Amino acid sequence: MKGKALITGGNSNLGKAIRKAFEEKGYEVYYTVSSKDKVDGPRAIAIDLRDENSVTSGLAAFSELDVLVNNAGIFTEGSQDSLGTKLFDEVMDLNVRGLFLATRALLPALRKCNGAIVNISSMNAVHPGFGTTSHYDASKGAVSSYTASLAAETGLRVNAVAPGLIDVSGLRGSELERHWNGHTVRNRMMAPEEIAKAVVFLAESQGIYGQTLLVDNGYCLR
User: What is the dihedral of CA 162, 167, 172, 176, to 10 degrees?
Assistant: First the structure.
């Protein structure tokens, strides 16, 4: 057994791929699910990542941790003309506040193991999004900035993966997929497994601190 890994948002398409990638590497993998979701296994932890008390109590059992993957997040669209504060707050509360709360709660456990943190940012953090995602882009820009600062502050290997558009059934054949394919080098969406491999790579790497790794099929080159 290589050690313990915790993945937040473990029931999403990407979360499941990350869980599998770490399991195949020999890790004991735990994961969080929404407090509204059904807990589907002994290593699933139901918490509300936006709620401080829920995070503190839900993660208190971890005295040692080798890898934290902050994967939980939401993507929404809304133009600046129509975007309401409720939608803005929902994105920031999970994508930024939730990541901060989980990280803070687990820092003592990670320090005991000289552990690694991999945050899931987005290519939108470094490249304009799709026209109506400025609030989401801002949240992921905060993730990348937090990543760099936390590595410098803690001395832990803290890095981020910035995925491009991930292949899920709801996007196949959509206008967004057509736009994506027309702007990438590889001409297809990202497979969750490809992102997961990059996450494992950063978790196990040595000498890489505070970096955001683009995994976007070359979208940001064009």
Answer: 0
Question: What are 198-222's pLDDT values in tens digits?
Answer: 999 999 999 999 999 999 999 999 8
For the chain, the domains span: 3-221
Domain 3-221 CATH class label: alpha beta
Whole-structure pTM value: 0.96
Distance CA 209, CA 222 (A): 27
Residue 146 has pLDDT above 70, yes or no: yes
